[in-house]
Each structure stands twice: as C-alpha cells, then as structure tokens.
C-alpha cells in the first residue's frame, strides 16, 4: 500500500528525506533494520536522480524535474559529470550510525574488490553503466593481526552490467555480494548509504582482495587480502546539492571518502 506523506515531509528535498529516513532507521545500532525499513530506503533511493545530490549528468536540464520543489534550484551550480576524470567521492554526510555519499566514475575506471565488514550498504546507480563483480564468504575468515584474510567465496555477480535507471540494490554482512568491485562502462555515479560506516577503531576497516578462480568449483573463488593497488587514489569533491539539516546530536565526520 502506498504511503501518503504529510505536506511538510513532501516539501523536503529528496536528499533530506533520505537523511531523515536513515536517521530513523539507523538511530538504534543495536537493532538490525527490518525488511520493511530496507524497502522504505530503497524506494526513496529509487526516486533520486543525479541533480538531487548536486551533480549534472548532462542528460537533461535540472529544471525538467517533475518535482521542482525537491530538486536543486534552476540555475544553481552543479558538478558536471565530464569533470570527473578519476574516481571521485562526494561526501554528503557521515555520523557514527551511517554515511551518505556519491562515487563518480569516468569511463573505464575501476574500484577494486573490497569488503564491507558487518555492514549494510544500499546503492543507487544515478546515471551511466557499471560492471559489477561481487562475492559472499562461504565462511568469513577469522580476523587476525598476524595474517591476511583468505577464504572461499561464492560468486554473486560475475561481471554483471547495470544500466541506469535501475532499482537500488542492497548488500548485507553475509549476503547480497558483501565483497564487490566496480568498473565503469560509461561515465557513471553511485549514491551509497553505509551503515555503520567504515571505522578502523571499531574493527571495520576497508580491506582489498584479489580473486583466484577454482576450476573444480564453478561459481566459487578463493579471495586473498592484498594491498591497495599501487597508484590507486580517490579524489574528493564538494557537495553542491540541497542544504542538509542534520540532527544536532550527531557528530558529522568529514572524512574525504569512504569505500562503498
């Protein structure tokens, strides 16, 4: 059944609606989000476009939005998609409970295979096409400071190409493709919500992996922890979308970027 939002909620920008929903759903870290809450967030993400987070994808004028009140004002300054000549992260918000940001890719750029330890990640492809490779651990390797992670993983997506517009996706700690890599087929951007965010202090570092196929086990691979590829960097860009009103009890963390 469709939800009828009151007028004061409908007057909010789309990114503000997303933030408010995340604040409600993720404000109790001890309680895992329900299926209904995840679907609610996916529905909000499904209604978002690049202009809603301050990016001009070049597809159409920002004033053509069907909901002028909720999109950046006509004539406002947006980040042009052709300006992203390397992978760039647009930081929107981060607190202890969740983060919101956008990864922008030039064609051909790759975000290497990485994990999301004990995290839920919702992703919305805002424009363009991206090739996805993802895995889930058969049995997650036990953390050890003296040795690198290594284990058998099940292939979830084998070079699957996603094209915008498409529905928002979600991955969980042990399902949905918790370890993934992206390669931009065309210039593209991915809006991410992570809960909780990466945190070295809380045992949630971002770890990179190489994959070794197992010929005798089709659909599986051995994943081995590796160093960040030499020369790989992610640039930062300012958020130019609608102003966000955040909970004053939160400490907004302005880290330059987070791997998705």
Describe this protein's structure.
The protein has about 260 residues and is mainly β. It has one domain (about 10-55, about 80-235): Sandwich (Jelly Rolls), CATH 2.60.120.10. Helix content is about 10%, strand content about 35%. The chain is built from three helices and 14 strands. The strands form three sheets. Strands 9-6-11-4-3-14 form a six-stranded mixed β-sheet, with helices on one face. α2 (about 15-25) packs antiparallel against α3. The radius of gyration is 18 Å and the shape is globular. Mean pLDDT is about 85; it is low at about 1-5 and about 60-75. One of its GO terms (biological process) is detection of hypoxia.
Keywords:
14 strands; Jelly Rolls; EC 1.13.11.20; 260 residues; 11% helix; six-stranded antiparallel sheet; PCO/ADO; disordered N terminus; cysteine dioxygenase activity
Main sheet, how many strands, which sense, barrel?
6 strands, mixed
State the secondary-structure class.
Answer: mainly beta
Q: Helix segment count?
A: 3
For the secondary structure, the number of strands is 14
CATH architecture: Sandwich
Shape: globular
Straight-line N-to-C gap: 32 Å
Q: Report the uncertain regions.
A: 1-5, 62-75
What count of domains describes the coordinates?
1
Helix content: 10-25%
